[in-house]
């Protein structure tokens, strides 16, 4: 299905956000389609974080409309966004180092078995489901692996598997390849490809130009709270995107 035929999984219209006299976002329009990987780029202070927090339910927009899978939505808190199918993998990953991969996947969503008035954690069922999720992502991560012993790429696999547990339709990834080795970067980009193959929309927030051009279908550039460009990867270049980020080129 092409973008022209599909309903956007996410559509923003005229999104703005003010913090007192400070205008963080101004009339941002954006669409993301199922199975599409969109890069979100911009310098510090460009408005990327504010935009992500609005989509994730951390902030309410001052004005504008958010539609998800064709329906208007209003998020008062992050759980509202997660309920409709939006997940965020933050840069710190929010993993518990002392727990296993399976325990982290199910953290806060543990499976339990009831024995009369008692309920016990169903470790076997959680390990089995985690193994399935890692298999879908083609990750070598194992359910019983301790997170504190994992590479950066394996940690990303755990965080992404957690989003698949809830059948997320849009996954936003915040700087997933920062401060990891070249080999681990390839692992993370492969995980993004797996999500795309499964029809999940991905928004990649990154400063790493090679990663965006390796895995994204489109790139959106923010500058000073405004969207300055929204272009297919094939229709632009790292040089043009850099110029848009820095202001050497105003818009494209």
From TrEMBL:
- The ABC transporter domain covers 10-249
Q: Which GO terms describe its cellular component?
A: plasma membrane
Q: Which Gene3D superfamilies match?
A: P-loop containing nucleotide triphosphate hydrolases
Which UniProt key words apply to this protein? Answer: ATP-binding, Nucleotide-binding
Q: Name one Pfam family in it.
A: ABC_tran
Please indicate which superkingdom the organism of origin belongs to.
Bacteria
User: Its Gene Ontology molecular function terms?
Assistant: ATP binding; ATP hydrolysis activity; transmembrane transporter activity
Q: What does this protein do?
A: Involved in beta-(1-->2)glucan export. Transmembrane domains (TMD) form a pore in the inner membrane and the ATP-binding domain (NBD) is responsible for energy generation.
The molecule here is called Sugar ABC transporter ATP-binding protein
Its source organism is Bradyrhizobium diazoefficiens (strain JCM 10833 / BCRC 13528 / IAM 13628 / NBRC 14792 / USDA 110)
């Amino acid at each position: 299905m092409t973008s022209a035929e599909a309903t956007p999984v996410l559509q923003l219209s005229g999104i703005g956000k003010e913090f007192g006299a400070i205008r963080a976002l101004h009339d941002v329009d954006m669409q993301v389609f199922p199975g599409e990987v969109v890069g979100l780029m911009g310098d510090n202070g460009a408005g990327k974080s504010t935009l992500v927090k609005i989509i994730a339910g951390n902030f309410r927009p001052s004005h504008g409309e958010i539609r998800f899978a064709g329906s208007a939505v209003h998020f008062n808190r992050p759980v509202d966004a997660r309920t409709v199918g939006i997940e965020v993998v933050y840069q710190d990953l929010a993993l518990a180092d002392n727990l296993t991969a399976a325990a982290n996947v199910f953290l806060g969503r543990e499976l339990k078995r009831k024995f009369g008035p008692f309920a016990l954690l169903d470790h076997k069922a959680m390990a089995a489901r985690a193994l399935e999720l890692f298999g879908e992502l083609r990750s070598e991560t194992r359910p019983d692996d301790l997170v504190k012993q994992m590479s950066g790429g394996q940690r990303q696999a755990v965080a992404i598997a957690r989003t698949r547990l809830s059948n997320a339709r849009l996954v936003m990834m915040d700087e997933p390849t920062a401060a990891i080795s070249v080999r681990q970067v390839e692992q993370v980009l492969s995980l993004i490809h797996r999500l795309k193959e499964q029809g999940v929309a991905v928004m990649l927030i990154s400063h790493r130009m090679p990663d965006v051009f390796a895995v994204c279908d489109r790139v959106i550039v923010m500058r000073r709270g405004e969207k300055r460009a929204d272009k297919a990867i094939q229709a632009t270049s790292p040089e043009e995107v850099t110029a848009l980020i820095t202001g050497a080129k105003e818009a494209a």
